[in-house]
Specification:
The protein is built from three helices and 40 strands. With 347 residues, the chain is α/β, with parallel strands linked by helices.
Length: 347
């Protein structure tokens, strides 16, 4: 996409200092940017790079007063403004033409909204509903009686099992399975009797789910992903889990069945949560933490078993000092034995 700098500044709602007719064709970092690119400066650590940039324009804080060759776009939040630039320049990226590819299989009872795009080798089963402008890239499967809201975008080889519900503007990346069976078995005379998984998955508006994620359907009722939740790659969410709106779940995290995660929670990479606990609103779970009991709202925990972060750091520091402490104990024991052998009184 190509746009003049003055028009871009108007769309961003920022003040331009420089030539409004400069063409903008891309965005990049301070040192990677070239003519036609917009870049940004938001961290004092990179102040020396601003005069060296070859960018057409730099998004700078409102207080920035240095003279530079490039045009300046003044913003109260330079990094956020730069993200808006990226979003604007990438508006057409990945957009697919509306219509149903000849190799797609769409059941006659499926309902397709306006300007829907169904790619090659997709399957849309009976009773499924695709909202306006929904996009299925090649190889997507949408099961019976499932529904996708408006402007959903499913990347290649996504599987949406039967009776799954996606809200509006949901993005799902390749290899993800929504609605796989929950892991439930009952021991029976040395075997494992499968518990039927008859619930579904509910994904609310503005959720993004990364690649190779598994979200299991509920045993009964719903596994629910709240509005605005962002889920990284390689995450497992078990049956009947509820994740509150605005939460973040980072790569390789796992949430066991029937656990409830509050609003605005962060689960860092490889965090593991046992089932049937609650994580309070705004809590943070550190990387590789093993959470074995409920976490109150607003608390930061880490380690295994997970505990308040400051305490976990102290215990980790003590653990690292154990070899030195053992050596000191051995030395003291040796000295004590020597004193006892000489018959000296030991207090």
């Amino acid at each position: 996409m190509k746009i003049k700098l003055g028009e871009l500044a108007k769309r961003l709602g920022v003040v331009l200092e420089g030539d409004p007719d400069i063409p903008v064709t891309g965005a990049a970092g301070l040192l990677e940017a070239g003519p036609g690119d917009v870049t940004f400066f938001a961290n004092a650590r990179y102040a020396s790079q601003v005069p060296r940039t070859r960018a057409a324009a730099v998004i700078v804080p409102e207080s920035y007063r240095e003279e530079i060759r490039a045009a300046r776009l003044r913003s109260a939040t330079p990094y956020l403004t730069f993200l808006h630039v990226l979003r604007f320049l990438a508006a057409d990226r990945g957009r697919r033409p509306p219509g149903v590819h000849p190799t797609a299989v769409v059941d006659s009872t499926a309902v397709l909204g306006e300007q829907v795009s169904v790619g090659a080798l997709c399957v849309v089963e009976e009773g499924a509903v695709l909202g306006n402008r929904a996009t299925l890239c090649p190889g997507v499967f949408v099961g019976a009686r499932s529904s996708l809201g408006e402007d959903c975008y499913l990347h290649p080889n996504v599987t949406v099992r039967e009776e799954v519900r996606l809200g509006n503007r949901v993005i799902v990346h390749s290899g993800t399975v929504l609605g796989s069976d929950g892991f439930g078995y009952v021991p029976d005379n040395g075997s494992h009797e499968k518990i039927p998984q008859v619930g579904n998955v509910m994904v609310e508006d503005d959720v993004e789910i990364g690649a190779n994620v598994a979200v299991d359907r509920a045993t009964t009722g719903s596994t629910r992903i709240g509005r605005g939740v962002k889920i990284d790659n390689l995450v497992h969410i078990a049956h009947n889990v509820v994740i509150g709106e605005g939460s973040l779940v980072v790569a390789q995290a796992g949430i066991s069945g029937s656990t409830r995660v509050g609003r605005g929670v962060t689960l860092a990479g490889q965090a593991g949560l046992v089932g049937h606990i609650e994580i309070g609103d705004g809590a943070m779970v550190g990387a590789q933490a093993g959470v074995t009991k409920s976490v109150p709202a607003g608390i930061k925990v880490s380690g295994y078993p997970a505990m308040e972060h400051d305490r976990a750091r102290r215990l980790n520091a003590y653990h690292r000092r154990l070899p030195t402490l053992f050596e000191r104990i051995r030395e003291l024991e040796s000295r004590l034995r020597a004193l006892e052998e000489t018959g000296e009184r030991v207090l």
